[in-house]
Amino acid sequence: SKKEEATIPEKIIVGTNAEFPPFEYVDDNKKIDGFDIAMMKEIAKRMDVKIEIKNMEFKSLIGSLESKTINAVAAGMTKDPERTEAVDFSDSYYTSSQVMIVKKDSKLKKMTDLKGKKVGVQEGTTGDKLATGENFGEKQKPVVKGVDVRRFPKGVNAVMDLKNGGVDAVVIDEKPAMEFVKNNKGLKIVRDKAAEEYYCIALPKGNEKLVKEINKQLKAMKEDGTLDKLKAKYIDK
Ligand code: ARG
């Protein structure tokens, strides 16, 4: 029944897409690590519940939450109106925004310069929505129109295509963009006014008890400096 569902699970089964450094990635030992993973492990520890991490395509995360294959998503996922119809979100734990990755000699300066250009994105992300001209954020204006959007399963696939002379730009979240540019010669980041995006943990729709508990742990981790410590370790290293 509905009542039984609205409880704290014995195990948090976290869906992620480990293609988004520094928030989630597969490390040299083939283990999934990153800020989101460390944060979820700490939350589970404080809640005294088990945790399991499931790696999947980004575009499958919301559906997996709805079909109960997982009961949480930690994937640098931005809270937006469309997703909020399907899932509940925790309070925000990180603020980000979209940037462009281009070749070093590119003249692209503004998001609106993307009009008529081939733009690579990770399928189903807010970068995809922005390039497609969707209005996904509270302060987001659908500034970009007429873009030839090329969708890739992973952000890094889009970056490789950019390097190989396929797309003209990649639209992606700032911190992963910085990691990709650091690891690939000949690329640079272009920042233009894009809406602030708030990363939140996505949870099954209607389990108020779970949302409350997760928010309680997030708040405590903000107040006692744990979240800042994890940010220093993984993001601002
Ligand atoms: N913040 C963006 C979004 O919510 C991108 C997230 C991509 N995350 C990932 N693990 N691949 O759509």
Brief write-up:
The protein has nine helices and 13 strands. It is of the alpha/beta class.
Give short descriptive properties of this protein.
237 residues; alpha/beta; 2 domains; binds arginine; D-Maltodextrin-Binding Protein, domain 2; 5-stranded mixed sheet; 34% helix; 9 helices
Structural features, described:
There is one protein chain. The strands form four sheets. The protein has a five-stranded mixed sheet with strand order 10-9-11-8-12, sandwiched between helices. A three-stranded parallel sheet has the order 5-1-6. A three-stranded antiparallel sheet has the order 2-3-4, covered by helices on one side. The longest helix has 16 residues. Helix content is 34%, strand content 27%. The chain folds into two domains: 131 residues, 3-Layer(aba) Sandwich (D-Maltodextrin-Binding Protein, domain 2); 93 residues, Periplasmic binding protein-like II (D-Maltodextrin-Binding Protein, domain 2, 3-Layer(aba) Sandwich), CATH 3.40.190.10. The protein is globular and about 50 Å long. With 237 residues, the chain is α/β, with parallel strands linked by helices. The structure holds arginine.
